[in-house]
Amino acid sequence: MSTLTLKDREVGIFFWAEPDALATLRTVKSCGVVSGQLAIDGTVQLTPETTAAWKAAIAAEDFHVFTVFAAYEGESYADIPTVVRTVGFMPADTRAARELRTREVIDFAAALGVKSFGCHVGFIPHDPTHPEYIAVRDLVRRIADYAATFGMTYCLETGQEPADQLLAFFGDVDRSNVKINFDPANMILYGSGEPVAAFELLASQVISVHGKDGDWPDPAQPGSLGTERILGEGSVNIPKFMAALREKGYNGPVCVESGVHGEEQRWQTLSNAVKLLNSLR
């Protein structure tokens, strides 16, 4: 495990960049946190003005950003075939543009003083000799090397591969700054493995965790994704999962992702989830 500061041991929130940086952070803090992970969707223009606004807001609110995540234009999580076709670095026709965008997001994170970048890579072929596997592996190496110039880790999000396959990919990438942001619900939503067992296998590489819950895909609907749930109401078994973190000596951040969408419910749901995780930590 990485050596972490006391501030890294907090419960935080995963949240999306909105146009008003200061207002966004104040809303996030209203849920009872002073830290989190900042997500940048593909439409956000990362101008010098954007960077300056976020840097000033973070300083003004004394807020700690653990990780900056990138999402990309054209991605869709409608179902597994759509994820395969659109998400991360697997679509060959957007790969070059997304590599450039990734570097922009890393530059943005570095300007904010954030030491971790993350994203979904997409469904990597199981065959390490497959041309698409090789192309994505080499791209991940390039991104890791670029992040390393800023002293930054590159976190891969879990869920789209079983834990043993992700671990094998790690070995093949062979970059010491490539780590894992472990999302227990994603393991369930994609039907890729029981989350506690997956965490135990990957624990040595995990530097951040999502607090998220969900139920398994419907076996009567092949290709479907599972359903996100309010934290504590899905199939992850959050108390068991949090106990597994303690047993493995994990002291890093746990950042809530809401399983409820819609502005009216979202922030109350996040606030309740923060209270639940604090009670379990």
TrEMBL record:
UniProt KW Isomerase keyword: yes
Annotated keywords: Isomerase
Claim: Isomerase is one of the keywords in the record: yes
One matching Pfam family: AP_endonuc_2
Stored PANTHER family: HYDROXYPYRUVATE ISOMERASE, INOSOSE DEHYDRATASE
All residue ranges annotated as the Xylose isomerase-like TIM barrel domain in the record: 29-267
UniProt cross-references to InterPro entries, sorted A to Z: IolE/XylAMocC-like, Xyl_isomerase-like_sf, Xyl_isomerase-like_TIM-brl
Domain of life where this protein originates: Bacteria
UniProt-recorded Gene Ontology molecular function terms: isomerase activity
Identification of the protein by name: Sugar phosphate isomerase/epimerase
